[in-house]
Design goal:
The chain is of the alpha/beta class. It contains six helices and six strands. Strands 1, 2, 3, 4, 5 and 6 form a six-stranded mixed sheet that branches.
């Protein structure tokens, strides 16, 4: 009896490990864009040589002012102990920042094993144009781009993307005919093998 259960467990561990179990909970597209924005702002603050306890007036374009990017920029300054003022006439420094581009793209789908889930490489790209200055001096001016790359399951893409990102272009990879048929075929065959082994071992 122990051998029977051991054999059944081995079969399901093999099948389940390749077909049924996901790779945890990947970050959503929005979370990754916030991470990219925070990283860009931290680099900008360091390159401009902005010290803690400074006060900055921030001017945004409309693509930033009403989106999740606004909060990521504010949080980046707060994390460096830099305050944001709403009074443009009373400030140590001013940052004028605009969003040049933001995109979410995916590679062609692939599988790491024959029974493995379909995966794709996700690339989040974000570019800011900006000027950091006070009344007498420009501390930093230019464009800054960052790309974050990770691997996600193809089946998770719709859950990871949000309609709250109208400023980010989004291109979901198309499945080939082979890929679209492979997963249900694999699941059906794997289930059939498991049932066959169950009754064979039992008898």
């Amino acid at each position: 009896m122990q051998n029977i259960f051991r054999n059944i467990a081995a079969v399901w561990m093999f099948i389940g490990g390749n077909v049924m179990f996901a790779d945890g909970n990947p970050a959503t597209d929005m979370e990754r864009i916030r991470q990219a924005s925070d990283s860009l702002m931290v680099h900008l603050i360091e390159e401009a040589g902005i010290s803690s306890a400074s006060s900055i007036f921030v001017s945004y374009d409309n693509k930033i002012a009403y989106t999740v990017l606004y909060y990521s920029i504010i949080e980046s300054f707060f994390s460096k102990n830099i305050s944001i003022t709403t009074d443009s006439t009373n400030r140590d420094m001013m940052l004028e920042i605009s969003l040049r581009g933001s995109a979410i793209s995916y590679s062609e789908t692939f599988s790491e094993s024959f029974l493995g889930a379909l995966k794709t490489t996700r690339t989040i790209s974000l570019t800011y144009d900006g000027i950091m200055r006070n009344r007498q001096k420009v501390f930093w001016a230019g464009s800054k781009t960052i790309s974050l790359v990770d691997t996600v399951n193809y089946s998770d893409l719709d859950n990871l993307h949000s309609g709250d990102l109208p400023f980010a272009s989004y291109s979901k990879p198309a499945l080939s005919i082979f890929d679209s048929l492979l997963e249900p075929v694999v699941v059906t065959i794997a289930s059939g093998v498991a049932i066959y082994l169950f009754f064979t071992i039992r008898s």
